[in-house]
Amino acid sequence: MADFNNIENLSDEELVKLTLADQDNFLHIIKRYEIKLSYYIKRISGLVSEDIEDILQEVFIKTYQNLNNFDQKLKFSSWIYRIAHNEVISNWRKRKSRPENVVWDAEKVLDNIVADFDISQDIDRAILSKNMESIFSKMDIKYRDVLVLKFIEDKNYQEISDILEKPMGTVATLINRAKKQFKKKLEESQVKL
């Protein structure tokens, strides 16, 4: 196993090469992505900690099993987020019900998503923040997912395209539709714009 101090300075792709040479280095990939992926899974699924841990475990198992197939043309982070995305969707389909409790950084989401709608400066953000969970729980999962990736996870269009396995034009359309659905749900919640 490589020295952890040196590992922290390696790129993801270099870490993957080390892991392919010595499987004990996979622990460093887990440490690097465990918290990030946990938050991502929680934000798009609204699941409780135990279920998130189960999905995360499956993500790391699939990552390990498929590490030899990692396409070096992609960013490793996009690849592992794609695996997490697919696991959440798979879990959601198994449950056949919509997640109810999604955790959002309301201020960050508001600043990024609703800026395009010219919301006046005098909105009572405290009221809006309280309604965020309700608003997002009513949105289609594909729109919640793209909003999380873009505005919470700060992924660019290419990374989102890689994660969702959709063309960048489709990603742009999804983000646009997600913003519109957000605005509609916001208006339906009777929060005045």
Number of strands: 0
Strand fraction: under 5%
What's the end-to-end separation, in Å? Answer: 56 Å
Largest sheet: none
The SSE string, one letter per element, is HHHHHHHHHH
| The CATH architecture of the largest domain | Orthogonal Bundle
- Name given to the CATH homologous superfamily of the largest domain: RNA polymerase sigma factor, region 2, helix turn helix motif
What percentage of residues falls in helices of 4 or more residues? 55-70%
Count of individual domains:
2
Instruction: Specify the structural class.
Output: mainly alpha
Q: Compute the number of helices.
A: 10
User: Rg to the nearest angstrom?
Assistant: 18 Å
* The first-level CATH class name of the largest domain: Mainly Alpha
Poorly predicted residue ranges: 118-123
Look up the CATH topology of the largest domain. Rna Polymerase Sigma Factor, Chain: A
Mean pLDDT: 80
Instruction: Label the overall shape.
Output: globular
